[in-house]
Each structure stands twice: as structure tokens, then as C-alpha cells.
Amino acid sequence: MLDRILLINDDGIDAPGLAVLEQIALELGREIWVVAPEHDQSGVSHAVSLHHPIRATERRPRRWAVTGTPGDCVVMALSHLMRGAPPQLLLSGVNRGLNLGIETVFSGTVGGAMTGMMLGAPSIALSQAWSDPANVRWETAARLAPGIVRRLMKIGWSAGTCLSINFPDLPPQDVGPLTLARQGTGSVEGMDVEARTDPRGFIYYWVSFRRGDRDQGPESDVAALNAGRVVVTPLRYDRTDEEAYAALAQSLPR
């Protein structure tokens, strides 16, 4: 058992996925801290609040709601609330929906885990697939995650990496093995803006992803998830494109 675990998410402190994450953490650690956004912060990636103040409210011992992003929650926890006794593990999620391909760039769940990694905490993001938003298979993540996290902690990973785990939309007994996969391209083909009119006659806008079938490349997270497996992908901040770097190096000084 770990001495201390920090839990964050991007769906908000009252989200059902965070309650599932607390169940998971109780099987892994003795002292559980929750520092989560007051409201839903999906899609904010690694954002931190540099231009306005944030507030933190202690709802009960070791459970804090923060008026900010997942990144803000991590900074508040590691640099302030838990400064004298840092966690041995940070878990982010359980996200309601997948974080695969390019969506990991936008994900607040993954962004929070990567912020934790940057600040020195071993960090894992967890996400649960669904086909019916009213009936998410939370029991899949709840039952399988403790054993998977123990296994990954035993193996270990580099300090400059966080792990992203995605659970398929299947009952726990039908899920395939834990599979290492690369980040694929994902399903996002573009983004759309829809203009609407509110009851007072003013225009407002909804931004959304446009999705489609795309070539995912070899050993992709999408292919493994579609095969019914639990997918783990190691992620890091360095996004240098080596092929483009090599081509540009022919003409530009280094």
C-alpha cells in the first residue's frame, strides 16, 4: 500500500468518475487526497490560471474544490496543500470518455497528469469509454484499475513520462489484456462552430470536434481499444517531430 495518493480530474469534484477513482485509490493507498475543479473543466489541456486568482474550498479533510483547471488543482496540491508531504502517486480521472490520439492534447485529464509529472509526481490518467452517456460502464475501470496500477507501479516508468490508460466499453469480464500502444491520430478531422440565438435574440456559439475514420498507424491506441483491450500509452511533453527536424537541419543552423 502507498502512503499517500492525490486524485484530480477535469469533469469536476462532483463527477461520478471521481467517485470511481476514489474507490480505486482506496485499494492502493492509506491516505487519499482529492483536489479537483469546482466545475467541469473538460478540454482545457494543461492550462493554468496566471491572470486571475483561484480559490480553494475544503469540503472535508483532504478534499478540496478549486475554482480553476486540473493544472491549477495539481499546482495547488503539490506546491501548497501537500507541500510538506507529497503523494507517491497522482491519479487523474476517471474521465467520462476516451482520451486517444490527438484528443490527449486537448484533454484536461491528461493535462492534469502531465502537470503532476512535471512537478515530480508519478502520474497516471484514466479514462472510460462509453456508448451510452447515461450508462457508462464505471464498473470496468473500478474493478480492473487497481490491479493494473499495481502492475505498472511495479514495472515503473521514467520521471519525464506520464501514463494514459483507457478502458473499453465492455463488462469487466469481457475485457482483453493490458496492451501497450502508441498514440494514434485519433478520430478528430476538424472543428466546427455552430451559431445559435438565445431567448433574448443574441448570437452565441458552440465549438465542437468533427470526427471520422482515419488511418491510425501501427500499434495504435485506437486499434487496441477497438479490439476490446485496456490500453496504456506513455506520454511526454517533447513533441519534436524527428523527421521534420532532420529535414530542416539540412538548411537551418543548430
Structural commentary:
With 254 residues, this protein is α/β, with parallel strands linked by helices. It has one domain (2-186, 216-238): Stationary-phase Survival Protein Sure Homolog, Chain: A. Helices cover 27% and strands 30% of the residues. The chain has helices at 16-26, 70-81, 103-106, 108-118, 138-155, 221-226, 242-248, and strands spanning 2-8, 29-37, 56-60, 63-66, 89-96, 123-128, 162-167, 176-180, 188-197, 203-211, 229-235. The strands form 2 sheets. The protein has a 9-stranded mixed β-sheet with strand order 3-4-2-1-5-6-7-11-8, sandwiched between helices. It has a two-stranded antiparallel sheet with strand order 9-10. Helix 2 (70-81) packs parallel to helix 4 (108-118). The radius of gyration is 19 Å and the shape is globular.
SSE blueprint and pairings:
Blueprint (H helix, E strand, L loop, with lengths): L1 E7 L7 H11 L2 E9 L18 E5 L2 E4 L3 H12 L7 E8 L6 H4 L1 H11 L4 E6 L9 H18 L6 E6 L8 E5 L7 E10 L5 E9 L9 H6 L2 E7 L6 H7 L6
Helix pairs in contact: 1-5, 2-4
Entry keywords:
globular, 7 helices, alpha/beta, Stationary-phase Survival Protein Sure Homolog, Chain: A, 11 strands, 254 residues, two-stranded antiparallel ribbon, 30% strand, nine-stranded mixed β-sheet
